[in-house]
Amino acid sequence: MGVRLILKDNCLTAVLSGEIDHHAASRIRCEIDETASKVKPEKLVIDFSNVQFMDSSGIGLIMGRCKLMDIWGGRVEVANMPPKIEKIVSLAGIGKLCSIREGKINEADK
Questions:
Q1: pTM to 2 decimals?
Q2: Superfamily assignment of 2-109 in CATH?
Q3: Segments of the chain with pLDDT less than 50
């Protein structure tokens, strides 16, 4: 499991890959929070395009980042979710906490 962080125009994009379980979510959370605390972006985009599996730890990962960005006056957008992950996120009610982007993020937008 990995995360690639891209900062562009005060937007931090976290491109996740692999499987998100308890251990992976912990590592991802630390990397995102460390970078976000330094740059305090207006928007954090969490890109799930390369994620094959996610358990409830992924929901916690999203919720925690929403809380963090809310403290700083920013917002979170979740994008590029495979259908199975989109179903989990939808059932958890994440759409009430952050934006869910329909469609794909273009490489040029990252």
A1: 0.90
A2: STAS domain (3.30.750.24)
A3: 110
